[in-house]
Amino acid sequence: MPIGSAAAQEDVDIKTQDPVAEVRVTFDKTGVLETDVAGLADLRSGRAVTAEDPVRVASISKLVTAIAVMRLVEAGKLDLDRDVSADLGWKLRNPSFPDTPITLRLLLSHRSSLTDTIDYVLPLDADMAQVLAEPEAWDADHAPGGYFRYTNFNFPVVAAVMEKATGERFDRLVRRLVLDPLEIEGCFNWLDCDAAFAGQTVVLYREREPVKDDNHGFTPDCPVTPARDGSCDIAATWAPGRNGAIFSPQGGLRISMIGLAKIGQLLLGRGSVDGTQLLSPQSVETMLAPLWTFDGRNGDTQEGAGNGDSQSGFLCRYGLATQTLATSADGCHDDPFGDGRERVGHAGSAYGLKSGLWIDRQSGTGIAYYATDVLDDDAGSRSAFTRIEEQLAGADQLTAENDSEP
């Protein structure tokens, strides 16, 4: 009987199911230590999953976006503490606190006072300045810098700032600054990915129904959210910084677990991996050091920030697009590993996928993992993470249905 199967937990009144696919890669600074895979990348074709297949890793994308930001900071193109209005060319303000500037440091650490109460998945032809002029986009009770609320909309703003500072499209910018120098194949929202790579994508499911990246072996005809009239002319529509949401900087990175492990190696290596010094050790420490720690009243510890997406205590320490786990504070349940060891990285959750990239700087090791078709209600036993995430974080046997080794 598979570990964690519904039959094994028949005394618990919750719905459980095994994932469609699971991949787990452990690594240290020098390379991959172990790779474990189970299940199918695509139920329709019966294709077995591999650790080289691209998958939409959800919010781990934020961490990779932050690495690109830090490269621009080191190059003098951006400043973490400058009012981003100066870069955007329009005034970004919480209408309730019009005199308080918003900086990249606040956006990257989810302390900007933006919220996800309006849709951050904008159509191709949206004008983000107009969208963020709406009071509904903002927290009227907390000024920028004073409260943590996990908000996806922070990252389209970050992407817009990056585009305005460089004149480059966000997806191509991250490729130039991060992926190409590390020889990692990957892209945001498919447009800048090789067609063969896109054809090998891992399909995302909910209740065994495909909900994302069911590409049928091809690059999608429109790899971004179409314009309001249904058109998808990216070349004619894109302008630097006008709509930072086009390439989903908050969650749209497609990358393999082998590629993601190299991002983890970069962090373990204090900015260096395989002889390439991509960031300074100081920049890496700036990213990883918590800027916010939950004290019982200074933030929302739910990933969904009131949307019911996760249990309370999921987020208790946060840096520049990095989570720190195993926080010793009342109300914190942020240790899916269950061993009390501090780890830093980021979790991902979208379209039935759960993912994680975590490094243990004390031991010099890390882990990258994901599972598809995970039920949000399939709660873990030792943390605010799901049961499947706890299994992936531990040494448990992988349990995906239709187990098939490549």
Describe the secondary structure blueprint for this structure.
Layout: E1 21-28, E2 31-42, E3 47-48, E4 55-56, H1 60-74, H2 85-88, H3 104-108, H4 128-131, H5 154-166, H6 170-179, E5 186-188, H7 195-199, E6 204-206, E7 209-212, H8 234-237, E8 253-255, H9 257-268, E9 272-273, E10 276-277, H10 281-288, E11 292-293, E12 317-318, E13 323-324, E14 344-350, E15 353-360, E16 365-371, H11 387-393
Antiparallel strand pairs: 1-2, 1-16, 2-3, 4-8, 5-8, 6-7, 9-10, 11-12, 13-14, 14-15, 15-16
Distance between the termini: 22 Å
Name the strands of the widest sheet in spatial order.
Answer: 3-2-1-16-15-14-13
Shape call: globular
Count of extended strands:
16
Poorly predicted tracts of residues? 1-12, 305-310
| Major sheet characteristics | 7 strands, antiparallel
Strand content: 15-25%
Quick take:
The chain contains eleven helices and 16 strands.
Q: How would you describe what is shown here?
A:
- The chain has eleven helices and 16 strands.
- The protein is of the alpha+beta class and 406 residues long.
- A hairpin with a 2-residue loop joins strand 9 (272-273) and strand 10 (276-277).
- Helix 1 (60-74) crosses helix 6 (170-179).
- The radius of gyration is 20 Å and the shape is globular.
